[in-house]
Design a protein that fits this description.
The complex is a heterodimer.
Chain A lengths: L8 H33 L3 H32 L3 H34 L8 H24 L2 H31 L4 H33 L13 H5 L1
Helix pairs in contact in A: 1-2, 1-3, 1-4, 2-3, 3-6, 4-5, 4-6, 5-6
Chain B lengths: L5 H6 L6 H12 L5 E10 L2 E11 L4 E5 L6 H7 L10 E9 L2 E2 L7 H7 E4 L10 H11 L6 H14 L3 H4 L12 H14 L4 E5 L7 H14 L4 E5 L3 H7 L2 E6 L2 E7 H6 L4 H8 L4
Parallel strand pairs in B: 3-8, 3-9, 6-7, 7-8
Antiparallel strand pairs in B: 1-2, 1-4, 4-5, 9-10
Helix pairs in contact in B: 5-6, 5-8, 6-8, 8-9
Classes of the chains: A mainly alpha, B alpha/beta.
Chain lengths: 234, 282
């Protein structure tokens, strides 16, 4: 946040509070995400349940931060960087909540998967999981430090995740064609992979908003994108 | 008249990166500025109040002048119709033209200038006359009408343009001072437009008004923009953001930033502008 202070001290306090709560919420979702991914790779239903249980708290935080932000908008009518901060806050909080929802979806699949035979592509899921945790962690870190460079790096790296998703998609298709016994497991894994890929997209969007806060505009140009899985199916 | 010298305009590019931008915008839009100020210095006695102001004000736009008290924004506004002439010890240097005409030209009649560049003040100041006479006064002394009917036509049209006609049509011959504050201010605007100015200067026109009267004036400003060039001084940031297309930020007698209002209020390029509009210590 900006180093110089507002004439009205309580304005600074309100801005700081919102920002801190968002970072805190980001941390919660990060933990939720980590649990969900680990639940898949370690076939651990307890971790999955923990991720699912955490969601109510994440949702509460979203409501609370939205409320704080709307009140600040009404009370202070922020301008320039403050305005960008608040517009981004509303959006980022929404995206954090969505990532939390995807973590819950992953965790739910993890519960089902823990009772099914293991198929080798689950290793790719672990790699995707590690990648999305890094991306999301960096997006939240970029927000916490208002680091536009880190945000840009998240924005660029999402392509790697997309590529991994596309290759996993092909691999799962092969397994399903090989043995129809694998279809149920593979479909679950495919969903998990899609959720992870979406979490990567949200991390990128968060990064774009951090860039907007710091530089006053979204990153310029087309985001580097890998060929999507849609292409992979053709 | 030599209006713009792009080299000069860009010479102190630091802190004024938008200057060259201005010229580009105008050539792109193909519009000639209505008011051009070049290197304007103003002194009150020994004290310099404005330092080398360069500004192009485009026709049919609202230009907002903002900045902390004492920054020179009202002083600059008053330069544009030579209201500073009446202040003792005030000296203005530099060049200002309105619609291509040098306003310091010795041949120019200052009364005529003030008819072309009308002004609305902070506190509504209707004459102690009837509503009708308040508006009729200007056209009468400037000889804008040749008959009673024509004068009435001007008065009614002006009141209509000022959005006041509905409220005063039954009390045209009652004192203007009997109207509410907001109505009085719109009466003053009607009085200003009755003499068919090109430019209307407004010095904090809403600071003495309640939010509803303020909203009416703001709505009016937006309508008047179609036919006039408007320059407004305001201390209300939100108002500047709402009513203007371009915003100029003054600080300690200098023009620090001048650009599109949308950009200034979402992403100002000068640190001091940012500090001021966000309410930080400058």
């Amino acid at each position: 946040m900006s180093s110089s202070q507002h004439i009205v001290r309580s304005y600074d306090e309100e801005l700081t509070r919102i920002s801190n709560r968002i970072v805190e919420m980001g941390g919660r979702v990060e933990a939720q995400l980590a649990d969900a991914i680990e639940a898949v790779s370690k076939r651990n239903s307890e971790l999955a349940q923990r991720a699912i249980d955490m969601d109510a708290h994440v949702d509460e935080m979203e409501t609370e931060i939205d409320d704080l932000t709307v009140k600040l908008l009404a009370r202070r009518q922020p301008m320039a960087d403050d305005l960008r901060e608040m517009v981004a806050a509303l959006r980022i909080v929404g995206m954090l909540e969505r990532v939390g929802d995807y973590a819950v979806h992953v965790a739910e699949r993890a519960v089902s998967l823990s009772n099914m035979p293991v198929v080798p592509p689950v290793l790719v899921i672990s790699r995707m999981g590690k990648m999305v945790r890094d991306l999301f962690g960096d997006a939240v870190g970029a927000y916490a430090h208002r680091d536009a460079e880190l945000a840009l790096s998240v924005w660029r790296r999402d392509r790697d995740l997309d590529q991994l998703y596309a290759s996993l998609f092909r691999e799962l298709l092969t397994y399903m064609m090989e043995d129809s016994q694998n279809v149920t497991t593979c479909v679950h894994l495919l969903f998990v992979a899609k959720y992870i890929e979406r979490m990567g997209d949200f991390s990128t969007n968060i990064a774009e908003h951090v860039h907007y806060i710091v530089r006053g505009h979204k990153p310029e140009g087309q985001r580097p994108k890998a060929g999507s899985a849609r292409i992979a199916t053709e | 008249m030599q209006l713009a010298n792009s080299e000069n305009a860009a010479k102190d590019g630091v802190g004024m990166p938008e200057k060259t931008g201005n010229l580009t915008t105008e050539s792109k839009a193909g519009r000639t500025p209505m008011v051009v100020a070049r290197d304007v210095d103003v002194f009150y006695g020994d004290k310099q109040a404005l330092f080398g102001i360069d500004m192009d004000i485009l026709p049919n736009e609202v230009t907002a002048l903002i900045g902390p008290s004492g920054c020179g924004k009202s002083t600059f506004l008053r330069c544009l119709n030579r209201m500073n002439d009446v202040i003792e010890g005030c000296r203005v240097e530099g060049r200002i033209s309105v619609d291509g005409q040098d306003i310091f030209d010795r041949a120019l009649d200052v009364v005529h200038l003030r008819a072309r560049v009308g002004m609305v003040f902070q506190k509504p100041n209707p004459f102690p006359k009837s509503v009708f006479d308040n508006v009729a006064y200007g056209p009468k002394i400037h000889g804008l009408s040749s008959s009673k009917d024509e004068l009435e036509e001007i008065v009614m049209t002006s009141l209509e343009k000022a959005g006041l006609i509905e409220e005063v049509k039954d009390r045209l011959h009652q004192p203007g001072t009997g109207l509410s504050g907001g109505q009085q201010q719109r009466l003053c605007i009607a009085r200003a437009i009755a003499i068919q100015p090109e430019v209307i200067l407004m010095d904090e026109p809403c600071s003495a008004l309640d939010p509803i009267a303020t909203a009416k004036i703001e709505e009016l400003i937006d309508e008047l923009r179609e036919n006039y060039t408007i320059v407004i001084v305001t201390h209300n940031m939100q108002q500047a953001a709402r009513v203007s297309q371009r915003t100029a930020f003054f600080h300690l007698g200098k023009l620090l930033e001048f650009g599109d209002t949308d950009q200034i209020f979402t992403n100002p390029s000068v640190e001091r502008t940012r500090d001021y509009i966000t309410g930080r210590f400058g």
